[in-house]
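Recall that a protein's primary structure is simply its ordered list of amino acids. Everything else, from secondary elements to tertiary packing, is in principle encoded there. The following example makes that idea concrete.
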Amino acid sequence: QVQLVESGGGLVQAGGSLRLSCAASGLTFSTYTMGWFRQAPGQEREFVSAINWSGYSTYYANSVKGRLAVSRDNAKNTVYLQMNSLKPEDTAVYYCAAARSANSGRYYYTDHYDYWGQGTQVTVSS
């Protein structure tokens, strides 16, 4: 049974930082592409970042480039999202997701991913 469990969300002031973690179990973590998505109230789930199986290749939405950084530790079956210079518009539930496919052209789409976590709330106050 595959489980993805996010943690590290919370309330932070604009300009602050948070580090999200996603711990995976029940899958061969080192062979999966990992993605981060977010969903604000009343909006569709949107792509934030992705990292390939080795950690060598990373991908970001334009809105977060230069502020967020994705990384992974395959020995710990965990993927991270370091979030700096946070803005109120970053407020959302953040989800991690796992994909068997390494097709980098599809990382941005929710239907590329096979498994999802339950999400963690990030709230940025102005």
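The chain has a mean pLDDT of 96. The radius of gyration is 13 Å.
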